[in-house]
Design goal:
Layout: H1 4-9, H2 11-20, H3 26-57, H4 61-90, E1 110-115, H5 128-134, E2 138-139, H6 140-147, E3 153-154, H7 157-174, E4 179-181, E5 186-188, H8 189-194, E6 208-209, E7 214-216, H9 221-224, E8 232-234, E9 240-249, E10 268-278, H10 283-301, E11 305-309, E12 321-329, E13 334-343, H11 347-352, E14 355-358, E15 361-364, E16 366-373, H12 376-384, E17 392-393, H13 399-402, E18 406-407
Parallel strand pairs: 4-9, 8-14
Antiparallel strand pairs: 1-11, 2-3, 5-7, 6-7, 9-10, 10-16, 11-12, 12-13, 13-16, 14-15, 17-18
Length: 410
Amino acid sequence: MVNINDLREHPEKYKKATADKQFDPKSVEIALEIDVTRRALINEVELLRASANKAAKEKDIKKGKDLKNKLKKLGPELSELEKKFANALLQIPNPALNDVKVGKNESGNEIVRKWGNPREFKFSSRNHWELGEELGIIDTKRGAKVSGARFFYLKGDGVLLERSLTQFAWEIIEKEGFLPIVPPVLITRKSMSGMGYLEHNGEEDMYVLDKDDLVLVGTSEQSIGPMHAGETFPLKELPVRYMGISTCFRREAGSYGKDTKGAFRVHQFNKVEMFSFVHPEDGDREHEFMLSIEEKLLQKLGIPYQVSKMCSGDLGASAARKYDLEGWFPGEKKYRELTSTSTTTDFQSRRLNIKFQEKGKTNYVHMLNGTAFSQRPILAILENFQNKDGSVDVPEVLQKWMGKGKIKRD
């Protein structure tokens, strides 16, 4: 959630920031209105308690009884107001940072830079779904037969390619101080709310197990962030960095009709995710650090890409700044999102009560996330390294794990 004191002092800033993110700025007004009523009631309760204590000392039994009855009536009212206020605060999104461009949607995103030159083919290049099926490594037909649309089987060299990408990411990222972990893929609603993903119809894109009050994660960060809920880091331990390896699940609500072919936009996929808890002064530096790692991985693979900086309207509720790395897909002749990295500043840490201690005082950490690899780079490799005969060259950096330099139909 946002800083309550700052919200009280600068309401117009939060109204504008909320509107810039394409959320209703009335959420700020509602929270502040509840806060005024709540604080007045708190003050009334405190005065009644003080009077009750005084009556007890003076042994004024009748007055003390009357005051206790009043307090008893106000208790539930205050409790209800506290709940309403907490819920109202949860509706206010994290303001975008000052360097983020104001825009309504993805059309307002900025291309920061590009790397690599798209390959010029001397033959008619094909899409990843054609290549994947012909090579026998991606089977969407049987995936749909067993589980429905947007599921697939990854087979043979496709599995080897995914494992090679994971090992490659592990080799690079672990050296940078990220501890590899396999986090749970089911978390409580409370944990998901703490990460800021339930509000604003966020649950629509999640698989929810109502019977167990659990949610399947859509990204590893959702289960990594709550690991340290309610904890305080000693300053010397920061930064704390993790590399999560897990399966992720998304309903892809609102994406019907998009990417219906192949395995680009699916309900289940595997992912390697970076996550950091850092000192607030190091937040921006850590964000650029994560971005540099993601760029390094794509450069070593040899996939041309562009870095897109999200405008305010494309950030979502939690992120204060976000970069997408979009790889070139020659079969489609366009750049598509492969990885991304976001900073949520102290938005998630306030919700989860994650702090650090410095000079006898505590403050909230900054929390950041960044994707090393999902399964999408497999699709980019198929398209960028395809050959006329339908085979696909394995990027050199992956060959030691693949045990081969080419993927071809047996």
